[in-house]
Amino acid sequence: MANETKKAPRKRAAKGKSTPPDTTSDAKKPNGQLPTEPPKGTPDDADFRFYTKGGHTHESLGLSEDDLVGMYRSMMLQRRFEERAAQMYGRQKISGFLHLYIGQEAVSTGTVQALQPADPIITAYRDHGLGLARGMTANECMAELFGKIDGSSRGKGGSMHFFDVEHHFYGGHGIVGGQIPVAVGLGFAAKYKETGNVAVGFFGDGAINQGAFHEAANLASLYDIPVLLCCENNAYGMGTSVERSTAQPELYKKAYAYDMTGAVVNGMDVFEVYYAMSELAKQAREQNRPALVDIRTYRYRGHSMSDPQKYRTKEEMESKKNEDPIIRLKSYIVDQGFSDNEALDGIDEEVKQVVLESVEFAENSPFPPVETMYEDVYVQDDYPFIV
Asked: Which of 4, 24, 149, 217 is spaced 20 to 30 A from 294 at the CA atom?
């Protein structure tokens, strides 16, 4: 296995206490005195990790043939589910917002394959793919989109609020960047309870400019939290490109300011995502340290169903579709002789049927009764805060 690590993470001088990078000539000044010498240099690529070269094989990654087919099925399920969801949205079966994940399936699948089942995952409103990858059923997910009682959040969350404690998937959050501090809190809980788990918090490239990210990253580093702050960098925050909205568009470099590992990952290659997340999770687990992961991916659909996508060209879209993560994995499986096109197309037909049945399930599920309105809001059985 080729190790793409260019430089080991910076060592901290004292466990449990923040120490800035050793970039000043008088870094050992006592408390209360600021450095008087200018930094020796700004961060360069040698300070970060790049998981972008590719060339991995299932053998080098320790993946079995069954693992590959399982990952392919997961990615197909995510895509077919969302294609059908878009259709149902057009038929007004789904209300509110609908943010599709199509094109980003390698991120969810590679991450879930790399993590332990009890490692908590949390994300923003583009949550269908991660929820399905983590083990949520198409039935409960589609019912949630329909606003029905059999949905994962009993029909009261909708598209942006998938939730499944059993599979350690903690949402599904609608406020941009609002889930990032919660991700750090999940990591803190894992450290406090000594579970050995690593929390993984996903957010978009637009959210990294929120104050919530910077406050959470600062505390994660200060408190030595085992958390991976993962930016699903799909090039556009709503309709604005990263280059136009972010003063430092190389998002991984923000890790330097918080004395944590910064990494770039090719999010269109499920092998690369698996490799990167395996290494980074292992480091976080063993060292109780956070990392910022800049996962370069691409969504084929607009920011939401109401987005006409006038900010990008058809040529750009087509070029990205040539990198499709599902086609890449399918080609690998066929080339290695683990399966053939006919068998893999059979998996596609099988997940299409699963998704069709989920629509029927959602149609037949009732809407939440009015008397359930305040349920699941507070821990208590009564509502002393309301009356």
From this structure: 24
Cβ pair 133, 112 in contact under 8 A: yes
Helix (H) or strand (E) holding 263: strand 261-266
Question: What residues contact residue 18 under an 8 Å CB cut-off, 6+ apart?
Answer: 12, 221, 222, 259
Torsion of CA 98, 89, 161, 354, to 10 degrees: -120
Q: Quote the pTM value.
A: 0.89
Q: State yes or no: pLDDT of 344 exceeds 50.
A: yes
pLDDT class of 335 with cuts at 50, 70, 90? very high
Residues 6+ apart with CB under 8 A from 286: none
Helix, strand, coil share (%) of the chain residues, nearest 5: 40, 10, 50
Strand, helix or coil for residue 237: strand
Distance separating alpha carbons of residues 166 and 118, to the nearest angstrom: 9
In the block, tokens 């370069």 appear at 296
Cα Rg of the chain (Å, integer) = 22
Distance CA 125, CA 364 (A): 25
Q: How many residues does the chain have?
A: 387
Q: What is the pLDDT of residues 103-120, one digit of tens each?
A: 999 999 999 999 999 999
Given a contact cutoff of 8 angstroms between Cβ atoms, the answer to whether 298 and 323 are in contact is: yes
Query: Which two tokens mark 23?
Result: 């970039």
Q: Is the peptide bond before 172 cis (omega within 30 degrees of 0)?
A: yes
Q: Longest C-alpha distance within the chain, in Å?
A: 69
Contact 134, 89 (CB under 8 A): no
CA–CA dist 290, 337 (Å, integer): 39
The separation between the first and the last C-alpha atoms of the chain, rounded to the nearest angstrom, is 62
Beta bridge partners of 241: 236
Distant-in-sequence, close-in-space partners of 63: CB < 8 Å, separation ≥ 6: 71, 113, 274
Task: For residue 47, give both structure tokens.
Answer: 């300070």
DSSP state of 339: S
Candidates 204, 298, 203, 209; CA nearest to 246 is 209
Q: What is the mean pLDDT of residues 70-89?
A: 98
Do residues 81 and 142 make contact, with C-beta atoms less than 8 angstroms apart?
yes
